[in-house]
């Protein structure tokens, strides 16, 4: 199947599936979850395990995994968008360290939960390597834990021009669509009701209004990530900024001998405009990056998933990194949820719960969010409910046109800094 049939290579690879029925009309529940991606599904999973008597309903506008959960780079990583030293300055060293440790442990929890539930999502905990390929990138790495020499970094990922790098074990490669669709089947088997093709229009204390009826519940969970601005009253909560990806044809054994990634390590480099890649279980390169424009008014449309210039730049970057120019079989993209201070959050106040703003690092963080929301909803005090992202409130993004001007100027400035870095060889 070509990349025109599904929103991503991952969804294409799992083939056709039967959608679930939409909401048939008004109904009552104990917990209503808006969004059928990782955040909503992990929350339902842990809630249903903790209290099987709960009436849990998930509302999804398209189908489970349609959004970022079925389109991402497949990194279940311990990365957090806010660096630990910055967290320590704001919340104290102990809480910052606890946040880092919780995310590191979550990488293992994703694999454990998937294995326990029989979800084969090609999980491989090979770690993550970030390469330094310019003197400026190498300087920025100094003092990082897990610092590698040029030879050691090149042995893991045989990119051109490697000057050094750093490695962390706290990352696993996986197949995102297999995980999200498998998780949806598991929660449905545990008694959670999933209504697909049902668009939430607004959420208020005690009820969700959809295009097919109203769901009344004691607790409402907002789990929409980059699609949050479509909700009435939430236009400026996060900015939907697009990240785009390509997948190559399966590469030859000779290519992989040169590239490495023998344990399916995920990889990036230290440029400012983020790139990310993995070796898939069927020996493709799945490779993505930022750089697509932010669209005025926080609009999210299917046409924005495709930016030919970005796709070509991604292919050029593969060639620059590895000296190959493989056939690209799939091209896709989708919106990330970016809070104004880049700080993800999870919380519950007066019956309204939320989690999101992962800035592209959500595959593992959503699992941590689901476990944390479970404790909050069940009113259980735990180490998770003491983490610094709990009940954090980011300030809202500026009104338009300031939002459009600021975000796109930031993207342009980031690209210019990377270009200067490549030219400056001292």
List the helices and strands and how they pair.
Blueprint: H1 9-14, E1 27-34, H2 38-50, E2 56-59, E3 75-77, H3 84-91, H4 93-116, E4 128-132, H5 135-141, E5 147-148, H6 150-156, E6 164-168, E7 171-173, H7 176-189, E8 193-195, E9 200-204, E10 207-210, E11 213-222, E12 239-248, H8 253-259, E13 266-269, E14 275-279, E15 285-289, H9 308-322, E16 328-338, E17 345-349, E18 352-356, H10 362-377, H11 402-423
Please summarize what this structure is.
With about 425 residues, this protein is an alpha/beta fold.
Q: Could you explain the architecture of this structure?
A:
The chain is of the alpha/beta class and 426 residues long. It folds into two domains: 241 residues, FAD/NAD(P)-binding domain (3-Layer(bba) Sandwich), CATH 3.50.50.60; 167 residues, D-Amino Acid Oxidase, Chain A, domain 2. It contains eleven helices and 18 strands. The strands form four sheets. Strands 1, 2, 8, 9, 10, 11, 17 and 18 form an eight-stranded mixed beta sheet that branches. Strands 5-6-4-13 form a four-stranded mixed beta sheet. It has a four-stranded antiparallel beta sheet with strand order 14-15-12-16, covered by helices on one side. The mean pLDDT is 96.
């Amino acid at each position: 199947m070509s990349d025109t049939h599904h929103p991503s290579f991952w969804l294409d690879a799992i083939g056709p599936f039967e959608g679930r029925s939409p909401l048939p009309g008004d109904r009552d529940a104990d917990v209503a979850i808006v969004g059928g991606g990782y955040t909503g599904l992990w929350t339902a999973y842990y809630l249903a395990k903790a209290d099987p008597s709960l009436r849990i309903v998930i509302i999804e506008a398209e189908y489970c995994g349609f959004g970022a959960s079925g389109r991402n780079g497949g990194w279940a990583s311990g990365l957090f968008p806010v660096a630990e030293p910055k967290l320590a300055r704001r919340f104290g060293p102990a809480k910052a360290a606890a946040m880092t440790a919780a995310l590191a442990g979550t990488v293992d929890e994703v694999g454990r939960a998937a294995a326990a539930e029989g979800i084969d999502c090609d999980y491989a905990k090979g770690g993550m390597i970030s390469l330094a390929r310019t003197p400026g990138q190498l300087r920025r790495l100094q003092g990082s834990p897990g610092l590698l020499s040029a030879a050691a970094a090149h042995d893991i990922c045989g990119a051109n021009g490697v000057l050094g790098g750093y490695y962390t074990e706290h990352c696993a490669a996986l197949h995102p669509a297999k995980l999200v669709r498998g998780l949806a089947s598991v929660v449905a088997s545990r008694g959670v009701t999933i209504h697909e093709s049902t668009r939430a229009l607004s959420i208020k204390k005690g009820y969700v209004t959809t295009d097919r009826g109203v769901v009344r519940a004691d607790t409402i969970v907002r789990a929409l990530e980059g699609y949050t601005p479509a909700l009435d009253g939430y236009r400026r909560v996060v900015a939907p900024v697009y990240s785009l990806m390509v997948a190559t044809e399966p590469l030859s054994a000779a290519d992989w001998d040169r590239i490495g990634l023998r344990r399916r390590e995920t990889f990036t480099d230290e440029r400012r405009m983020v790139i990310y890649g993995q070796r898939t279980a069927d020996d493709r390169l799945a490779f993505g990056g930022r750089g697509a424009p932010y669209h005025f008014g926080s609009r999210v449309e299917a046409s924005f998933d495709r930016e030919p210039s970005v796709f070509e730049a991604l292919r050029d970057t593969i060639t620059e990194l590895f000296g190959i120019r493989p056939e690209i079989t799939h091209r896709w993209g989708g919106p990330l949820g970016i809070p104004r201070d880049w700080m993800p959050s999870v919380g519950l106040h007066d019956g309204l719960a939320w989690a999101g703003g992962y800035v592209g690092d959500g595959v593992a963080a959503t699992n941590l969010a689901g476990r944390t929301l479970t404790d909050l909803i069940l009113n259980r005090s735990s180490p998770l409910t003491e983490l610094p992202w709990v009940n954090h409130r980011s300030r809202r993004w500026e009104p338009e046109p300031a939002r459009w001007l600021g975000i796109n100027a930031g993207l342009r400035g980031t690209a210019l800094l990377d270009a200067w870095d490549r030219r400056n060889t001292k």
